[in-house]
Write a structure and sequence with these properties.
Layout: H1 3-10, H2 14-25, H3 28-44, H4 46-50, H5 55-84, H6 97-116, H7 119-130, H8 135-142, H9 146-163, H10 165-176
Helix pairs in contact: 2-3, 2-5, 3-5, 5-8, 7-8, 7-9, 8-9
Length: about 180
């Protein structure tokens, strides 16, 4: 990428790109892989991105997709490894391993569920809840109006609440204590 393209398109949102990827993958190595994949995709499509109405929104969308691609690949590798070798016994001295495991499983299930939502809903909920973007910017990134972006986020939330009612109840219980 020419220095001018990089300074104009990437440098202003480089930290935001990495945060977006990190919020999804939550692993330093996976975040690096996803970030590099996103940069490669931006490089290949730099002409299209430069002409886009909201190039930064499009770049963040590319980051989200790259992060989910890394998660899918990692899940596939875990499935293959599980078929080949039994997992090692963990000797952990943490006070509540079952709680930590439950939280981890819930997190992975929610990420997987987001990945199974319709594309616009998955991207909208990720941009809103993970990155904290305003609806206007989400609409720009998705190529739709702000109202449509709000609809995508609301529908994604509804589907996730139906899929994970125990997390909704747990969140309400924690909020009241």
């Amino acid at each position: 990428m020419a220095t001018g393209d990089y300074d104009r398109l990437i440098r202003p949102i480089e930290d935001r790109m990495m945060r977006t990827v990190w919020h999804i993958v939550r692993d330093p190595d996976d975040a690096d892989d996803a970030f590099q994949a996103a940069l490669a995709k931006v490089w290949v499509n730099r002409g299209k991105i430069a002409g886009h109405a909201n190039p930064h929104g499009l770049i963040l969308r590319i980051c989200i997709n790259a992060a989910y691609d890394v998660l899918r690949q990692k899940a596939k590798q875990r499935r293959v490894a599980a078929l080949q070798v039994l997992p090692p016994v963990r000797q952990d001295s943490s006070p509540s391993p079952s709680e930590r495991l439950a939280v981890e499983e819930d997190h992975l299930m929610v990420l997987k569920a987001i990945g199974e939502l319709p594309r616009n809903q998955a991207e909208a909920i990720t941009l809103r809840c993970v990155e904290g973007l305003p609806y206007r910017e989400i609409g720009d990134a998705l190529g739709c109006s702000e109202v449509t972006a709000r609809t995508h986020v609301a529908r994604a939330r509804e589907r996730l609440c139906v899929m994970f009612p125990h997390l909704v109840r747990q969140g309400m219980k924690e909020a009241t204590t």
